[in-house]
Amino acid sequence: MRYPLTTLATSIVTSLGLALTLGTSALAQGVTTQPPNAPSQEPAFPEQTRAPLPDSQPQVETSVVADGLPQLWAMEFLPDGRMLVTAKAGRMFVIGPDGTVGPDISGLPEVDARGQGGLLDVALAPDFETSNRIFFSFSEPRDAGNGTSVASAVLKIDDAGEGELSEVEVIFRQTPGYDGNKHFGSRLVFSPEDNLYVTVGERSDAAVRNQAQDVGSGLGKVFRIDQNGAPLPDNPLVDVDGAQPEIWSLGHRNMQSATLGPDGRLWTVEHGPRGGDELNQPQAGKNYGWPEVTYGIEYSGQPVGDGVTFSEGVSQPVYYWDPVIAPSGMALYQGAEFPTWQNAFLIGGLVAQGLVVLHLEDDVVVAEERVPLGARVRDVRVGPDDAVYVVTEQRGAGSAIVRLSNAS
After folding, report:
1. Mean pLDDT by 10 residues, the chain (408 residues)
2. Does the annotation count 183 as an active-site position?
3. Which pTM value belongs to this model?
4. Active-site position among 183, 252, 271, 359
5. What are residue 131's phi and psi, to 5 degrees?
6. Which of 74, 168, 189, 225 has an alpha carbon 20 to 30 Å from 353's alpha carbon atom?
7. 5-406 belongs to which homologous superfamily?
């Protein structure tokens, strides 16, 4: 079914059983013309923000795979084509390609689901087909409050979706803990060497967010660990006295988007303040500035710190958004369904309420397009059929899984 552009803001969640064909170009042009929150801030180089539209954009047809779900946080495709999903409240279950929802998988640890906390990302071990091992991140209750932790477990699941986790072990804990309910991150990405990148947040509050600059603290960092949770011997800070040896990069705010690029390097997108969401390619030992150097402003309208966007020794973002997209979920597109998206990054937008597509050449963003979905996008995956699958959510109304295919 085809809809005019005026109806594209209608919620996908209410469209069970329908297919929509979305032409992105008319709405995408409006995205880049909104005034910035920090009009006096200038990009460090011309391609750092507000990229043009690509020359060619596909028409995107959407269909709802599953609806009426609890608030989901992440999804991962199993080898048989079913989807393993996490729900924020601390649930995990399987959804079939036909939308059939399986029962809750048992064996999960307790989560602190207040605020932005809960059961977060999930990733299959590189050898999942033989080991059945998965990894997941969650906000773990602790004596000092809570913090982002990573656990591994063996997933046993039958054809009906009934399953359990065994050999559950917390392999890594972000420290220190903090009694708060914001900015837990978190995404899990395996490197080409089968090591694990873990992204977290800096816990938001002014009392602790400066620890993003402290290598003795695990707030506001990317970590690089092996599958047992140990730091890699070539991590940048393993020989630095007082530093946490698991740290890969520092100075981050709240990273809820991460994936590998075509050459196997890690890319992340983090929530900025009011303006200043950042695309970064985190490198060993590099400092990405937060909260001392950043684009955007405080939610109050005041400058962040001294309002500095550049400082010697601080890495600039590859790209930033002002106004924000509120990024969550990220995938590299490599498939046949969307030829014009080949090697593009697909990023979920909570505030953007749709899919953000970034085209890069030589690590520079050369084009940006949007696929409006009328719902907050929490996670993005490329399916075994080369279609794109997104987890959408509506405040107070749960989640849906939506399939995007090419109608061009």
Report:
1. 30 40 40 85 97 95 98 98 98 96 98 98 98 98 97 95 96 98 98 98 98 98 98 98 98 98 98 98 98 98 97 98 98 98 98 98 97 97 98 92 96
2. yes
3. 0.93
4. 183
5. -100, -25
6. 189
7. TolB, C-terminal domain (2.120.10.30)
